[in-house]
């Protein structure tokens, strides 16, 4: 059982997320280590995947690199996450178990002819956008949300994790669908238990320190099962799992502006327990009820999350507008200079003047 101070735990987490001073230089190696980049259409500053990549790689990163990696099939898109193609096998191991809910399984059974219609059409005419695929569903998809009666989209979303269809590319923001066999390379698919073990180990390597079991999260878990070794953190209840490769290493920190979807702070519970950092993405709140801003960026300095940047890219005016810098702790002159330098670097990377 390893006993860690909060400072040690934070430094493990920061290093594991490639946010210390030793910056990576290669996009694919970065994604391979992080295991994923999350896609999100909100681009108040920049698309989430690009912002996470820039935070690691700096000014050398260009969004074209990500598009090229997808075009070259070195990354693949699954459930709004970009993953390295080397992880395809462990992701497809879940295919036979999906979907897990009987209601969804029943809908697939009732619409098996609809499913075959889609596969036949993609086979002859793919890749296609969902709007180009006729809806031949016998039983409509029932939902109280936006997916109600969105039968084509829902069927495609269900066939994707089953490994029957794949996202072949995009036309703007619109996904293009094709048969998985025409998009994915031939890969070895391990048994499910082995695949889950590998995913837990990969996830812990990217996070550094995590709980064995935690609250279920959308898209990707934040817990790691029995991966790594057990640890306790001073002043924090319960047991953790730690990547032993991260123990007893030197730490040299830096300042970074993080996407709200950045995995360093994505697990809000872990962020509070290890970093004493409170955060919520407030873009869905009325403006009057926001504490930090529409798309506030967590601010990392060294091994501490020290505040939030409320900023927006005003592309029409060509400037990065800074509405506020929220200091969770009082900034020293050193922190202030470092944060301002990162804001200037962000503006330069975006091709904007700023800040204003």
Features:
13 helices; 4-stranded antiparallel beta sheet; 35% helix; 4-stranded mixed beta sheet; 356 residues; alpha+beta; single chain
How would you characterize the overall build of this protein?
The chain is α+β, with helices and mostly antiparallel strands and 356 residues long. Helices cover 35% and strands 19% of the residues. It has 13 helices and 14 strands. The protein has a 4-stranded mixed β-sheet with strand order 1-9-10-8. A hairpin with a 2-residue loop joins β3 and β4.
Q: What structural category do the secondary elements indicate?
A: alpha+beta
**Major β-sheet strand ordering:** 1-9-10-8
Uncertain residue ranges: none
Overall 3D shape: globular
Helix segment tally: 13
Q: What's the helix-strand series?
A: EHHEHHEEHHHEHEEHHEEEEHHEEEH
Largest sheet: 4 strands, mixed
- Roughly what is the average pLDDT, rounded to an integer? 95
Report the end-to-end length measured between terminal Cα atoms.
Answer: 50 Å
- Into which percentage range does the β-strand content fall? 15-25%
Strand tally is 14
Instruction: Tell me roughly what share of residues is in helical segments.
Output: 25-40%
Question: How big is the Rg?
Answer: 22 Å
